[in-house]
Amino acid sequence: QVQLVESGGGSVQAGGSLRLSCVASGYIYMRRYMAWFRQSPGKEREGVAAIYSGDGATHYNDAEQARFSISLDDAQTTLYLDMNSLKPEDTAMYFCAAAQMVWGDYFTPSRYDYWGQGTQVTVSA
User: Fold this and answer.
1) What whole-number distance in Å separates Cα of residue 55 and Cα of residue 66?
2) Which residue among 2, 6, 62, 93 is buried most deeply as judged by most CB within 10 Å?
């Protein structure tokens, strides 16, 4: 069925950059919402950014996350999250998610049907 596989996580020093990738395979909506969530120990899963493949519209959960940029490749086969000026507080497990419709609730986990296993991002001071 549908599989989402993240990659690109790792350890980086504060101020560094990382590019996370998520490849979707199997039966999946052609027009879909895709998003990045993250979760750190003791905290609930929070949305980071979302994008609609139909028109490329992007949504960011917080203005402070302007350091991040979500995008799809030209073939719309791979979702990216470009992260710049990373801070220790960005340390978390990052998850890729997909849904046909989220009704404006871009960062509500329950709106998403498919999830990847996550990729760990660790930012050292």
Assistant:
1) 20
2) 6
